[in-house]
Amino acid sequence: MMDTVWTLERASPPERASIHHIGTADVWDALRRGWDDFLATPTQLIFLAIIYPIIGLIAANAMAGRALMPLIWPVISGFALVGPLAALGIYELSRRREKGLPVSWVNALDVRHSPAFGSILGLGAMLLVLFVVWLLVAEALYAATIGDMQPTSIRAFADRLFGTPEGLTLIVVGNAVGFLFALAVLMLTVISFPMLLDRGAEGRAVDAATAIRTSIRAVRANPLPMALWGLIVGVLLLLGSLPLFVGLAVAVPVLGHATWHLYRKVVTY
């Protein structure tokens, strides 16, 4: 996966997009602006309607003691891998507010009319594939460590996970591998989705490969600020998951709005 990332970056032809060097203060400012956008156009009800059926299905299977139980954490943490796709409509709201256009939560659906919608769907499909691969890798790690245990209850599973050397190995290795997946998604998408939407709206649509190359360039030009941004994303998604996942209905929109402003700070044409 990472070899593909570096290959795309090295193959990058000259582009009109200019990459700016930013500091950590710019990252915090983007987050503040994202919060302001969220307050101006609350969208938490939309995300509650999306999140809770998914969480309910996971919880029902876990309580029933089915084979999905070992994948609860990979599924929840893997949400960060598809988060850029889930926040696509949020980018559109920030774009409209920036332009002084009327903004309503309904405008989040306008992205389907974007001239770059085909490229957006292609990039989204790539994220879904990465998500599935992550689940397969997580399942393989579980099988290689404590896979001989068929969980009968959440408590029994937790005791095995936190109370045995095999369980601790799974925690350490699993999170390390998950970090690599998250790093790849950060490099590939932190700029690419907003760029596709922005260029399409301006009548200057670019393809997904160009957007990905620009995103990689942006991360490589700003390693520390982008590392901080990745940490902020991880922490907010984790905190949003703790109170029965209701916090995700706020964390995801705020991060989506903030990503748009981060894109604006890093890329100009």
TrEMBL record:
Protein name, entry field: DUF2189 domain-containing protein
Source organism per UniProt: Teichococcus coralli
Entry keyword set: Membrane, Transmembrane, Transmembrane helix
Membrane-spanning ranges: 45-64, 71-91, 120-146, 167-191, 227-255
Top-rank lineage group of the source organism: Bacteria
